[in-house]
TrEMBL record:
Native source species: Iodobacter fluviatilis
Co-factor requirement: [4Fe-4S] cluster
Gene that produces this protein: cysH
Primary residence: cytoplasm
Subcellular location: Cytoplasm
Active site: C221
InterPro entries in the record: APS_reductase, PAPS/APS_Rdtase, PAPS_reduct_dom, Rossmann-like_a/b/a_fold
Name of the protein in question: Adenosine 5'-phosphosulfate reductase
HAMAP family, A to Z: CysH (MF_00063)
A GO biological process held by the record: hydrogen sulfide biosynthetic process
Protein residues bound to [4Fe-4S] cluster: C110, C111, C193, C196
Amino acid sequence: MTFEEKLAETIALLHKIAGEFSPAVFANSFGAEDMVITDLIAKSQANIDIFSLDTGRLPAQTYALMQKSAEQYPSQPIKVFFPQTAATENFVNQHGINAFYESVELRKACCQIRKIEPLKRALAGKKAWVTGLRREQSPTRTDLGNQEYDSGNGLEKFNPLIEWTEKEVWAYLRDNNIPYNALHDQHYPSIGCEPCTRAISIGEDVRAGRWWWEDPANKECGLHVKK
Ligand code: SF4
């Protein structure tokens, strides 16, 4: 399949989602893939709302990209969801500001408060959600398809870039002058919260910089885990 055919299929899938699974939303975490989808939704005018989760611990470069994105795509506002104040305060006051380094349990508890609970609110009442996942990205993502039922959240989940290669993502970003996270130029292929993301070295897996102190088999925050 040529890249043009792949691109046409991706756009057709976005229109199908908008037509058959309305209301549908796209979860934008401002990674390279997510900027491709943002651009495709804006240009194709597929009726898919965009939201983002602000965990309160994102890198400054991600906030800069949020702002740039709002300026480049004024017709495509991105609704931001924040963690619940009381739960965040309780967790931090009980376990400390950087408790996620202490154990997988505390790391998952932090992700639950700062990501999973806000995600549930963002997905409430929706028929489908769209993500920028690609099969190549992680050992936990090798069996993904472009559509699956998300039983944990009770709605359809679409991964329109599942077959895209990293090279195709970057070619699309550059050819279309799409803004991207400045950390990508500093060897951060995968970007999450600032304290839980580091740069990787040549030859390391693209998600090696996420929760780098944990076993690779556990390295999902819960947003994309199958129940
Ligand atoms: S990635 Fe780190 S800081 Fe962000 S929610 Fe998860 S544990 Fe907390």
